[in-house]
Amino acid sequence: MSVESKHKKGSRQRRSEMVHRVRTMPRLRSWRNILGTDFYKYFVPTGLVPGAIVVMICAIGVINSRAYVETQNPQTQMQFPEGLDYSKFQHNTQNHSRLPCLLCHRRDSNAAVPKRPGASNHLPCAGCHAQQFSNADSPLCTICHTDTKSGALKSFPRLRSFRMKFDHARHLNMGSVNCATCHRPARGGVALSIPAGFNAHTTCYRCHTPRAQSGGRDISSCGTCHQLGGYSRTPQFAQAFRVGFNHAKHGTLNCNECHQIRAGMPQRRQVTQPEPLNHHATGRGQSCMTCHDGKRTFGGDDFSVCKRCHTGDTWRF
After folding, report:
1. Other beta carbons less than 10 A from residue 158's beta carbon
2. CA 299 to chain centre
3. 30 pLDDT above the threshold of 60
4. Residues whose CB falls within 8 Å of the CB of residue 292, separated by 6 or more in sequence, listed in order
5. How many CB atoms lie within 10 A of CB 52?
6. Global confidence as pTM
7. What does residue 41 show for φ and ψ, rounded to 5 degrees?
């Protein structure tokens, strides 16, 4: 047999094997089952066989390319630009902000300090950052660790990138909650405390326990009270304290005798406060003069009792 005939025979054999592999491809078999005899009935008589074959090849290529992309590791698809700030974890990035809170902060207990992720082989963070975690010198490690070799962790960060939302009206309408549930005497009884930091969790978690429900809605996740945005804490130093007002000395009064709840208002304006004036009050709302009118209690034009309110250097005009 000549060399040329051997070459032709080998070429025919290779083409036969190639055709066999193509025919046995799973996706091509599915196309054959779909088309069946209709392919030959409509395409062969009209001479559209070459065009149909081209369309089929293109479709198979597109399907296989999509399947390839879908099976890629998320790390190979994500791009991490240079110059990122790795000194702290940023919740407001495009990828982080779309993740549910409970993916990272799982509440297995009612502890006030949230559980940080990563204890189990850096999961779930390693789902996207596997390549970075494989390098012990990666700047990513400095987000949580002060020393990557010893594994020393930073303290849990303070609330900065989240604002805290609270609806006084909704909670008071529950019936089982009142002002004293959250607000306790502070500064020797002069003021009332406003829950803040992890102390707030201690108070709130009495009702917002893990997997707690209210009206068919989960109220245990971080997102129940926190949203991305700036945080401005309600101050505890009211103007009334500067003219000698003391909550402890007014203990026989109910909170709603001086304060009203306004539903739908911004958080710092939900609870009204009396005007901290007596002799020069405007009269447009509640003030010290509402009670200290010389009839209900001392006040009015009786200036012999000034020192009962104006004592020491704690007051000023």
Report:
1. 9
2. 51
3. no
4. 278, 298, 299, 300
5. 15
6. 0.60
7. -70, -40
Please give the full DSSP string across the chain, using - where no structure is assigned: --HHHHHHHHHHHHHHHHHHHHHT-HHHHHHHHHHHHHHHHHTTTTT-HHHHHHHHHHHHHHHHHHHHHHTS-HHHH----TT---SS--TTSTTTTTS-HHHH---SS--SSPPPS-TTTTTTTHHHHHHHHT-TT-GGGGGTEEETTTTEEPPPPPS-SEEE---HHHHHTTSS--HHHH--EETTTTEE----HHHHHHHHTTTS-TT-EETTEE--SGGGTEEES---PPPS--GGGGGT--SGGGTTS-GGGT--B-TTS-GGGSB---BS-STT--SSS-BGGGT-SSSSSS-TT-GGGGGGTS-TTS---
Amino acid at 26: P
Per-residue pLDDT of 134-158, as tens digits, reads 888 888 888 889 888 888 888 877 7
Phi, psi (5° rounding) for residue 255? Answer: -55, -40
State the sign of the Cα–Cα–Cα–Cα dihedral 97, 98, 102, 105.
Answer: negative
Q: Hey, which residues does 228 pair with through a beta bridge?
A: 162
Q: Locate tokens 């193509």: which residue?
A: 22
Residue with tokens 């909704």: 170
